[in-house]
Amino acid sequence: MSFQVFGLPVSRGVAIGRAVLVASSRVDVAHYFIEPSRIEGEIERLRAARDAVVNELEVLKRDLPADAPSELPALLDVHLMLLHDEALTGATRQWVIERHYNAEWALSAQLEVLARQFDEMEDEYLRERKADLEQVVERLLRALDRSGAPAFAPAPGVSERDFGGEDPLVLVANDIAPADMLQFKKSVFTGFITDVGGRTSHTAIVARSLDIPAVVGAREASRIIRQDDWLIIDGDAGIVIVDPSPIVLEEYRFRQRQSELERERLSRLRHKAAVTLDGEPVELLANIEMPGDASAALAAGAVGVGLFRSEFLFMNREGELPGEDEQYEAYRAAVEAMQGLPVTIRTVDIGSDKPLDRMSANELRHEHALNPALGLRAIRWSLSEPSMFRQQLRAILRASAHGKVQLLVPMLAHVSEIRLTFEAIARAQQQLSEAARPYGQVRVGAMIEVPAAALMLPTFLKHFDFVSIGTNDLIQYTLAIDRADEAVAHLYDPWHPAVLQLVAQTIRTARAAGKGVSVCGEMAGDPAFTELLLGMGLRSFSMHPSQISAIKQRVLRADARRLALHIDEVLSSEDPEAAYRQMLTAAAAREALETT
User: Fold this and answer.
1) Active-site residue numbers?
2) Domains plus CATH for the chain?
């Protein structure tokens, strides 16, 4: 029976596919696709794990003491029976064969299917046997863990169509860590649904960066959606339709085709210069996570990288941080791929909703902080790990010998942090000079994402060459809202007058001082804010490559001079969004009169 699940729309468009549940309330396992050549090996892992658990249980049964309760042998017999039941073992093999799931994922997927069946049984005794099933699966997962899962590395030239079977797939999870999202970056998933998260949680940001529809904060989605259900994600409305009727399915397929045509039309703008109607050139830059993303930035028409999120090099490494040489090669690859265009590398922004796989001793003291967003993160973490920080700085400085590199420092709030940062840069330069390693000169910028930084911007501008406004965190900290918490997500408001006044003040102050200023947060890639930011005086936007064409279209149709005349009226309003809409309507009416 069809029903709907509601959440927050965070990445526009329509996705249609079968549900793939990767996060379960019962088990937490690794999820990845295997290559076709490894199917037999993965099935052998399942067979070996089952044999190991069977052996364990038989030994337990044999060694039971004489005075053991009579129920124990019967319970062990039930577990042994489940281990030989084709509904568990045979169906699990099919997940591996048909979908190319790794063994652990296949096992947890089948657990979801069988657990639902147990829940629907009318007989209370049979319903309670679900606990036996869960215990058996947990034993199998432990046995698989002991067997050691081989590292997953897709073979060159392997097509996405080799994974997941013929049907399109939609990822459904309680939550997805940014590091795990990297595993799915070039995956077969056509959309994402998570129980938790807000509009600017990192799951949402990465979903937008993948340019696929997503709904977050859908509460119980991963519990009420079943494995293999047909789903429609309406990324514009924040609605998930489960088991849609044929009529609804056809309507959304039509909308899909319309979206694809619009994307194709916008892509024709990629080589056109971004200049407003009144002749103001606008810089459209790309946000990237990995060096390989640079090619997509160039293809989208970006005139540089405004934000290289270096923390993604530190994730999915089982706690082993990348060394200086590895980082240098990654940064150099991005710089060279941009073919002389500038690349802005942000120092590692670890912490809060982007933790490392394993924590250092220093971090462990903060692991149970009541609010990690206010804890040891970004530049605070870097300064607390001086050896790691200097290592990253040396790698960035070395990469600057191969092209235009800018260094961006996140979450600064104190003059003492500015002083310590520049001391670390000077020390890294000294170490490279002593080692006779070449490096270039870099311009150094500050992220403005804490209200304190925005308010003391004149002091910041004495030290830095440019600033970049991180609107996601600036909104979070200005409004005291955890942007990843769906319980307060409705209060996360980029239109809040205080937020807009801080953004406008930062842009004006930087421009008056002759310093560069850009916006690299989600507002930069949202067409709803393009004219507003242009009116504030912004001339440098940084966003995911997939968003550049849509923003360029707005820039090409905008008159920045006229927009600036009305910006104070918008900023002084109690309802800036309504005032802004009125401004755009009036501008459109004037343009219509002038053309007639």
Assistant:
1) 202, 520
2) 3-21+164-264 (3.50.30.10), 36-147 (1.10.274.10), 274-595 (3.20.20.60)
